[in-house]
């Protein structure tokens, strides 16, 4: 009787993880295109960084899709190999690519932390050492998985390396997020608009760092307590995408924060209508007679309150001057002929 195995926690988990990772890879490509369009004159170092991460993410996507093909198509019906826990080389390589994407993201945020802390190497230095150590663990895991070729053999001798790499990644995320929030809080100066921008950056930093940190913690927990299936690897597929999206989103948000922090333009409250400098005299013909209205000469100044000044009119009837009241149908000039005065209150 052929062996019956449950593939929901192994092949099924890898398939779902691949779908989710491909979705995140599409977001990475979208973010990269947005960056290249919004910042054509950005620093060369940032452009190179974006291109490198984008290429690495594309390679990572190709590796995990190839892994699914090997598991589900090439090894279809290979029950013995599945029971042994054979690892395609593409899965091993994807772990190494993930470590490089993580390193580049950490280096970018460490540079920002160094700027915010005014070159405080006491914090940045040890964190940089941990970030490099995380890459070393990832590359060691890749090399050993390629050598031993099965998960049981790897977990028997080198499981601590994979655990250490994920744990270091979480620690670096916490240190960077906490440090940036602290120094951003210290940079508050009591100015309303700037403090609002700083508060927004703090919230964004927390959300950004928490997302990647939670992803690595979940992958670590699944590895430690569900190591016999491949659910942890399905989660690990998405880690590189989350770091890449975190990096690109931060780069693309700069213009929004700069716009909010920019001082308001002069005359922002000025009226959008341009009035004549003065209407000294205004004449019109009415039934063959000429009525003259005198308006004082005015100037337009930058103000917030609009006052309309209207001189009284005089209607000539049978040679007698009669002041027009509210109910005697006064001969007012048209609205466009009313002189408006913009005064400071």
Structure description:
With 345 residues, this protein is mostly helical. The chain folds into two domains: 12-261, Rhopdopsin 7-helix transmembrane proteins, CATH 1.20.1070; 281-343, no CATH class. The protein has helices spanning 11-38, 44-74, 79-84, 89-116, 121-148, 151-186, 192-225, 231-252, 254-261; strands at residues 281-286, 289-294, 305-308, 314-317, 320-323, 340-343. A two-stranded antiparallel ribbon has the order 1-2. A two-stranded antiparallel sheet has the order 3-6. A hairpin with a 2-residue loop joins strand 4 and strand 5. The longest helix has 36 residues, at 151-186.
CATH domain class name of the largest domain? Mainly Alpha
- Please count the beta strands (DSSP E, at least 2 residues each): 6
Mean pLDDT: 78
What class, by secondary structure content?
Answer: mainly alpha
CATH architecture of the largest domain: Up-down Bundle
Q: Which helices and strands occur, and which strands form pairs?
A:
Blueprint: H1 11-38, H2 44-74, H3 79-84, H4 89-116, H5 121-148, H6 151-186, H7 192-225, H8 231-252, H9 254-261, E1 281-286, E2 289-294, E3 305-308, E4 314-317, E5 320-323, E6 340-343
Antiparallel strand pairs: 1-2, 3-6, 4-5
